[in-house]
Design brief:
Structural class: alpha/beta
Number of helices: 11
Shape: globular
Distance between the termini: 48 Å
Number of strands: 20
Radius of gyration: 22 Å
Oligomer: single chain
Amino acid sequence: MYKSFLVEVEKNSYLDRDGIEIVKKQNTLMLLASAKYIPGYKAVLDVYDTSKREPLEFIKNFPVLEKRMLKANPKHYYNSDINSKHLLKLKTTGSTGTPLEILCTQEARKKNYAFFDWFIRLHGAKPRDKSITIAGRKIRPSNITKPPYWLLDRFNNTLYMSAYHITELNLTEYCNAIRKFEPVYIDSYPSILYEISNFAIAHNIPLPTPGFICTSSETLHPYQRKVIESAFKCPVRNQYGAAEMCVFGYECQAGQMHIREDYGLIEVVDVDKEGLRQELVCTGFINHTMPLIRYKIGDTARLEFEQKCECGSKYPVIREIEGRVDDVVISKSGRKYSRLSPILKGLPIFESQYIQESLEAITIKVVSTGGSSKQLEHEIVDRVKEYFAEEFIFKIEFVQEIPREKGGKFRSVINRCNLNEIG
């Protein structure tokens, strides 16, 4: 079954626009057939006759599904007639609260794997090639203070490394283990790979040169890509997906991020008055047990539906994934600030995190490469005051490390204000 899925994904990758539209229509018809058994979609399907409407137009009649609605009543959005004993339960990382639980079949999971495996094949690797995955898996107990912080999966030929145990004190061990394993490719979060790369460059530690590095699960910033590629001397290829299985994006050989419309539909809605930030609304084709129709995934991006690409793919291009909708700082005047990573660039800082405590106060946690100093603190305050137009009071905290969220992800911005109430 998996092999047939992989063949289909490969075949669809070469479709022209007419072929893509045909596949989208077929997949939408199958999705609507499954949606008839989902309580949350019954109201829409009872009103409209699907046989008399074009499926791609009909799908627009569904209201946008907010994440909070899915969390509040998950049973409203899955087929309760299916025996749950035969279903897999997947959880999102829950970085903004209680994690979502997504139900799916083994078949849906295999389809999802087929898309990822097609992606690594696109860049010269194969399933079961030597690889390293650094993520938020509970590989070793959290109280372990000596290596190894990794475990070899011999069947998949993958070295799983813990993201939870990475500190500046043990990064040498991580670098040495990566070099010794000599992977064909590495799969991890941008923040983790950036941390390892920075350390290796600063301490003249040689790293292996994989065929490519796959980043996912976090926004990949240009400065991170530059450092990672410098340390590993290979291209970084970004992949965009979600545990909800409603979107699949991939970076091609030409460095463009495409959206596979045979995996799911994608729309954008403006999240500010100027239309400068657009939130992604996704409809997944893979999971018919818990199909998400017009689901606000919580990420903002810029799309180019008509842009051509050197790689030959006719799938639409994401110009830029800007990050989470809630990864913004907002002032009392209502002004929203995003893209904060360049503010402290060039200072002796390993990593930093902005925590908005209120509409007037921001705490900045800083891991400095040279320890704390009054001079560095003054430089940080001067830069942030200039960027934020002195709309906030700032508190600088020098720390040894910044804890990761559930799943090992790093959040550069944490907003404790209710943005919906601010407007």
